[in-house]
């Protein structure tokens, strides 16, 4: 892999994971201040899940018809345009529609960028490239800090400017896609079936018992995992923090360091125990948040910061470890679809289940610290149970030799 290719792939990851948190993490705080948003809040939070459900179909086009980098360009351009439009409306129903369009085109890019990076790098180099996505997510804090200190807008996260920032980065990502290495479809020569048209040919992987168990447990893990992304900024707002996205960026800062350790941990521990460790850290996070919701002053703030800092270990071991496991077990001609299928199950169905459960335990329009504490206790119990199931039930078998750049 040339230095130029490494730089382009790293920049792709940086922009792709910068464009979402600047607006999505602040969405709960923004909608609480929007008139008439109560009935729309559940559906708007689930735009991420609905967008993820489009991943297999979009990734099917990248496997059969269109270069992955060109598909990425289209997705980023449409998503960016929808975010610009979202900044112009105050009607919660119209906002939901525009954010749904944005997410239908944005969420498949997580699978596309993973496939582009792994197709043009080695297995060992992927975490070094993916870490720039963590840097991008952490860099989302810059928008809020700049608004507060340069433009005297302390309540940036409750303004439509969050969508303008996300749209601008999306269009920058679309331009970058023009310069990415060509990643042609690997299944072009195979006949198209109804299963292909739905992007679900990767369902054949479910015949493998280890992959089927992994998929089910990964789905369950998203129920507690996703609550962090959707509900943490409103929780921190209850605790008196103005810039929750900026505070959460400390977790991505830690992720940058931990991501570089992922190849070492995977080599020493393997996929199974790496993901078990990630789930154990997920349990510890919610135990820390539960304590933080109950304690006042610096003890509570220390527990909250611990829960945030653990994000790096959780994401690196659980999410990136899962992406690399899928890349290894999936045949080359359905690798995009396999990544999209796992995103459908976890980021689609898992996020829906998460928002449904925690939306009833902690309704944002009347949430207080006591309700948040109840939710964190439930999340802790779920994460701990899934950790034990992963340790006992998942048996991935021997790893193949590391795949080299084609």
Can you tag this structure with a few keywords?
406 residues; mainly alpha; Growth Hormone, Chain: A; disordered C terminus
Run of helices and strands: HHHHHHHHHHHHHHHHHHHH
Overall geometry: globular
- Mean pLDDT across all amino acids: 84
Count up the helices: 20
Q: CATH class, anyone?
A: Mainly Alpha
The computed structural class is: mainly alpha
Radius of gyration: 20 Å
- Detail the poorly predicted runs: 401-406
- How many E-type strands? 0
* Helical content band: over 70%
Q: Roughly what fraction of the amino acids lie in strands? A: under 5%
Q: In the CATH hierarchy, what is the superfamily?
A: MFS general substrate transporter like domains
Concise overview:
The protein is an all-alpha fold. The protein is built from 20 helices and no strands.
Notes on the protein architecture:
With 406 residues, the chain is mainly alpha-helical. Helices cover 75% and strands 0% of the residues. It contains 20 helices and no strands. The chain is globular, with a radius of gyration of 20 Å.
Task: Describe the secondary-structure layout.
Elements: H1 3-18, H2 21-24, H3 27-32, H4 38-45, H5 47-53, H6 55-64, H7 68-86, H8 92-106, H9 108-119, H10 126-139, H11 141-149, H12 161-177, H13 194-197, H14 209-238, H15 244-259, H16 262-294, H17 297-309, H18 311-329, H19 335-361, H20 369-393
């Amino acid at each position: 892999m040339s230095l130029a290719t490494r730089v382009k792939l790293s920049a792709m990851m940086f922009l792709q994971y910068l464009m979402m948190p600047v607006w999505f993490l602040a969405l709960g705080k923004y909608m609480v201040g929007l008139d008439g948003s109560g009935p729309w809040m559940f559906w708007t939070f689930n735009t991420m899940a609905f967008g993820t459900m489009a991943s297999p179909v979009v990734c099917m086009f990248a496997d059969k018809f269109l270069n992955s980098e060109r598909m990425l360009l289209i997705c980023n351009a449409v998503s960016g345009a929808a975010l610009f439009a979202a900044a112009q409306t105050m009607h919660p129903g119209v906002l939901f529609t525009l954010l749904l369009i944005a997410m239908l085109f944005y969420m498949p890019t997580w699978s596309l960028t993973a496939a582009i990076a792994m197709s043009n790098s080695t297995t060992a180099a992927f975490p070094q490239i993916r870490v720039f996505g963590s840097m991008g997510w952490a860099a989302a804090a810059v928008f809020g800090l700049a608004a507060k200190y340069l433009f005297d807008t302390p309540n940036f996260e409750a303004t439509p400017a969050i969508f303008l920032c996300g749209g601008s980065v999306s269009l920058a990502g679309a331009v970058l896609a023009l310069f990415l290495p060509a990643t042609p479809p690997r299944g072009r020569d195979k006949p198209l079936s109804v299963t292909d048209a739905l992007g679900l040919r990767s369902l054949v992987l479910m015949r493998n018992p280890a992959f089927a168990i992994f998929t089910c447990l990964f789905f369950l893990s998203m129920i507690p995992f996703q609550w962090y992304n959707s509900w943490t900024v409103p929780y921190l707002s209850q605790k008196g923090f103005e810039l929750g996205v900026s505070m959460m960026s400390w977790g991505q800062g830690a992720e940058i360091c931990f991501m570089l350790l992922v190849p070492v941990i995977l080599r020493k521990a393997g996929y199974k125990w790496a993901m078990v460790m990630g789930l154990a850290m997920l349990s510890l996070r919610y135990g820390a948040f539960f304590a933080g919701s109950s304690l006042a002053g610096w003890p509570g703030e220390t527990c909250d910061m611990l829960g945030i800092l653990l994000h790096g270990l959780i994401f690196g071991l659980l999410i990136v470890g899962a992406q690399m496991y899928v890349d290894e077990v999936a045949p080359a001609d359905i690798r995009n679809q396999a990544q999209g299928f796992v995103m459908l199950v976890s980021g689609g169905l898992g996020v829906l289940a998460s928002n449904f459960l925690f939306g009833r335990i902690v309704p944002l329009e009347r949430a207080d610290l006591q309700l948040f504490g109840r939710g964190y206790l439930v999340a802790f119990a779920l994460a701990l149970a899934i950790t034990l199931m992963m340790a006992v039930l998942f048996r991935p078998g021997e790893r193949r030799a590391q795949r080299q750049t084609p």
